[in-house]
Write a structure and sequence with these properties.
The complex is a heterodimer of chains A (78) and B (184). Chain A contains two helices and four strands. Chain A is α+β, with helices and mostly antiparallel strands and 78 residues long. In chain A, strand 1, helix 1 and strand 2 form a beta-alpha-beta unit. The mean pLDDT of chain A is 92. Chain B starts with 30 loop residues before the first strand and ends with a strand. In chain B, strand 1, helix 1 and strand 2 form a beta-alpha-beta unit. Classes of the chains: A alpha+beta (78), B alpha/beta (184).
Amino acid sequence: MTTLEIAQRVDAKGLSCPMPIVKTAQAMKALTTGQLLEVLATDPGSVKDFEAWAKSTGNPVVESGAEAGVYRFVLQHK
Amino acid sequence: MTLTLEAPADAPVAAPQAAPTDDGAVQHHDILLIDYSGELEKVWATMLLASTAGAMGVQCKVFVTFWGLLAFVKDSRRITGKNWMQKMMSFMQRPGISHRKLSKMNFMGMGPWMMGQLAKQQKNASPKELLEIAQSMGVEFIPCQMTMDMYGLTRDDLIEGMGEPVGAATVIGLMSEGWSPLFI
């Protein structure tokens, strides 16, 4: 795993739809262009949802993965 | 006799694809939810979609009409209306987002209570929480003037932050401008 400079972290573990997306959108507002946001979630639906969110908002997913049932997404502020 | 069906020459070949804008985001269609039903399950679905639209940066308006408007009366209001029939209506179906009933398996409030408990266990947000999130993310909730008159509701009976009351012409106007409608 590459070491990325994460500006902000969101722990959405245990939360269900649509809260991981909502928390992400709220946290992203506080960031500026180029900054990275790391999100941890356990909702299996979030894998597709984060793709859709990134496509819709234009903030790309720069890294994603899953470990022990926890999904991790690194999103970049556009 | 054989009949051959041919598409007219100017018919579109396929649905137009959403084109990305300059900044990389997909071009959005604005979304218009029509919140017509007052049952817990319908109100919940409406709030879920509205808050998600807000989180996704999609412009979304919710036109709140008929029984749907009951969910937008302040929870603290018990009897609303001006004449006896309006007051009786509010007595029979308690307004407020926290007092919605299920259309099936309500069982004197047992159904909604169990739904609430399950939602808490699963860490699902309640309709009220989702409504507040949607409002904070710029989703506009617009009350129907006609329904307000029918129930005898004033702006003060409704929750804070709602848009100006409008009528069906505004809804049709938005749809004709290309807002994607969804009737719930």
